[in-house]
Amino acid sequence: MFNQDAELTPHHLPDNLRRTEPRYGEMGWGQFTAANDKWNADCNNYCNSHNLCEIWNGDHDAREAIMFNIQRLLENGSFVKMWKEPPFLWLLHHSDNANNYQAINAERISMLPADVQKIINGLPKNN
């Protein structure tokens, strides 16, 4: 969750909401779906009353269907202007030495325009 008024400052749901999220397996399917619907409604009410939004964080393989994926993302939300944390990037191709991927990533990122480097929040964290 992020506060929309403060440049997407991270915000955690309160303990009473986090602790009460229903878990399938602890109850039957019918009970779970009813409890999950109520929990989601409570979370949505909390988010709306605190002007919060969600940010989807994920990845796509840019070698396949990149325009389709970008179009679907645009249809279902908007892009943040500044990434909230540096991603893991793999900017290598088949002839690169994968043992040296951090240095290769750093070199390739340094080739990007300064505004793009600023958007992706500098060098990525390597998990």
| Oligomer category | single chain
Low-pLDDT residue spans = 123-127
- Number of distinct beta strands: 3
User: What integer value in Å does the Rg equal?
Assistant: 20 Å
Strand content: under 5%
**What's the domain count?**
2
Provide structural commentary.
The structure is a single chain. The protein has 127 residues and is mainly alpha-helical. It has two domains: 2-53, no CATH class; 66-119, no CATH class. It is built from five helices and three strands; from the N terminus they run ββααβααα. Strand 1 and strand 2 (9-10) form a beta hairpin.
In short:
This protein is mainly α and 127 residues long. It has helices spanning 15-19, 29-49, 66-75, 101-110, 114-119, and strands at residues 2-3, 9-10, 52-53.
In terms of topology, how is this protein built?
Elements: E1 2-3, E2 9-10, H1 15-19, H2 29-49, E3 52-53, H3 66-75, H4 101-110, H5 114-119
Antiparallel strand pairs: 1-2, 1-3
What tags apply to this protein structure?
single chain, 127 residues, mainly alpha, 2 domains, 5 helices, 3 strands
